[in-house]
Amino acid sequence: xxxxxxxxxxxxxxxxxxxxxxxxxxxxxxxxxxxxxxxxxxxxxxxxxxxxxxxxxxxxxxxxxxxxxxxxxxxxxxxxxxxxxxxxxxxxxxxxxxxxxxxxxxxxxxxxxxxxxxxxxxxxxxxxxxxxxxxxxxxxxxxxxxxxxxxxxxxxxxxxxxxxxxxxxxxxxxxxxxxxxxxxxxxxxxxxxxxxxxxxxxxxxxxxxxxxxxxxxxxxxxxxxxxxxxxxxxxxxxxxxxxxxxxxxxxxxxxxxxxxxxxxxxxxxxxxxxxxxxxxxxxxxxxxxxxxxxxxxxxxxxxxxxxxxxxxxxxxxxxxxxxxxxxxxxxxxxxxxxxxxxxxxxxxxxxxxxxxxxxxxxxxxxxxxxxxxxxxxxxxxxxxxxxxxxxxxxxxxxxxxxxxxxxxxxxxxxxxxxxxxxxxxxxxxxxxxxxxxxxxxxxxxxxxxxxxxxxxxxxxxxxxxxxxxxxxxxxxxxxxxxxxxxxxxxxxxxxxxxxxxxxxxxxxxxxxxxxxxxxxxxxxxxxxxxxxxxxxxxxxxxxxxxxxxxxxxxxxxxxxxxxxxxxxxxxxxxxx
Length: 576
Fold this sequence. Notes:
Elements: H1 2-17, H2 21-24, H3 41-53, H4 70-73, E1 77-79, H5 85-91, H6 100-127, H7 132-160, H8 196-213, H9 230-243, H10 247-260, H11 268-271, E2 285-289, H12 309-313, E3 316-318, E4 324-326, E5 332-334, H13 336-341, H14 364-376, H15 382-386, E6 387-388, E7 394-397, E8 400-403, E9 419-420, E10 441-445, H16 446-458, H17 463-477, H18 508-516, H19 523-530, H20 533-540, E11 542-543, E12 546-547, H21 561-566
Antiparallel strand pairs: 1-5, 2-10, 3-4, 6-9, 7-8, 11-12
Helix pairs in contact: 3-6, 3-7, 6-7, 7-8, 8-9, 9-10, 9-16, 10-16, 16-17, 16-18, 17-18
Organism: Spirosoma radiotolerans
Domain RagB/SusD: 294-576
Subcellular location: Cell outer membrane
C-alpha cells in the first residue's frame, strides 16, 4: 500500500510540473487577506456571527440535535421511521463509528471550534493596532468567542469523552484533542486526545476568561439579545462545576446566579409556550439560541436562520379519511414509557380490541378522563407542555384545527403513540415555515439552575434548602406561587413522585430534572454523570427496532471512523 501511495504521489508531482504555469497557480485574487481583514470592529462582529450561527449548523441545533442523538440515547424518543439501520442502532444504545449523524455532529462542533480560534487570532491582531475604544469593543467580542469555544468543547467532551468525572475518578480517561489555533498544515491536524480533566479544565479556563471580559455586561437591544452576557457565562460555569463534581465552585456560581442575576421562574402560562417561538428571552432565560423562520433555506442548510428539528419530531394529525397524516417527516415520537413516567395511567384512547387507528374508534370516556386530569392536575401538567395527546389535543394545518392522531406508521394499536410539543411550530405544519422554524432553543434557564443548585446543596449537607429549590420548580409546574409552600410540595428528597419506575419514583431531584426539562436535550448528560444508563435501559427495555443493548462503555460515543482514519494520533473509545 505504501508503494502505491508513493507511485501515485510521483505521478501527481510529475503531472503538475509538466502543466502550464497558469494551471498550477492557485492564488485567488478575490480572497480576503488576513493582512487587511479583520480591520474593523464590524469585521470582528461579522466573524462572531459565524461563530454563533454554527450552533445551529445542520448537524447541531439546525437538525441533528436532538432527535438524532441525545433523544435516542436517553430514550426520549421511539422511532416511527424504520428505514435507517444506524438510526435504530443509536436508539438501542448501539452507536456505530460509521454513523453519518455522529460524523456530522463531530464535524460541526469542530467547525465551531475552528471559527472561534480564527476569530480569537483576528482579535489579537486587531487589538495590537486598535485604539482604546475599539479594543474595548473587541474584548467584548473576545469574551463571547471564548464562551462559544467552551460551548463547542462542552459537547465534544460530554459526547465523546471516555468518562465523566465521578467521585474523583475518570479524569485521566481520554477526552478530545485540544486545539487552540487554526491548523495551517496536515501535521498540525494530527493531535492526540487530551484527558477528560484537561478538557474540563480548558472549558473552565475559557469560561473564566469570558466571565472577566463580560463582567457587568447584558444585552438588552432587540438585535443583541441572543448574545451571551455575564449571567449566562456564570450559569454555564455553575453547570460545568456540577458536571465535574466541583461542589464548592458549583455552589459559589449557582448561588450567585440564583441570588443576583435578577432572573425568576416564568409563570406557567409563559412556560408552556416558550418552547414554541413565544415568550422568547423571558424572565428565566439565561442562554438562548436565537432562531428565525427562514422561508429561503431549510434548517438542514448551513445558510438557514431556522431549525428543522421540528421536521423530524413533527406531530401527526387526523387526515381527511380519519387516519394518521404526517405534518412533516414525522420520524420519531415520545417513547411510550415516558407517558407513564409523568403519572398518566388513564387507559388508552382506543378500547381493547380496536383494529384500526381511526378517529371514529376513539373511546369518548378517555377524552373526558383526560380533560379532568388536566383540570384537577392529577397527572403532572408538564406532560402536556412536552407532548400532544392523540384525539385530545389539536394542531393547526393550513389554518384549520386538526386533532392529533395516533402517531404515523405505528402498527401497534395499543401503543401510547403521542406526539412531541416542545420545539414544534404550533400555528401550522412545519412545511408552512419551510421546515425551518424559528423556535428559540432555551439552552440554559433558571429552572435548570435551581435543580443544579439543589443537587449541589445535597453535597454540602443542606438538604432542607435543596428540597425548597426542588419544590420551587414543582410549584410552578402546578400553577402555584413559586416561593410559598403548596399542596404539591415534596416532604423529603425521597418522597414519592409521579414516576412508577425504580429510578425516579422516590427521587424528587432526579424526577424534577427529567420532567421539567423533558425534550430539551439535558437528560442524557444526567444519565451519564449519574451512571444510571443500565437502570434506564432496564426501564425502557426496547424501541420499535429491537431491544436496547446497554454496555458500560455506552456513555461515550464512538469517534467517527473518518476521524480515526485521517488522524493517526487519535484513539477510539473502548467498546467500538
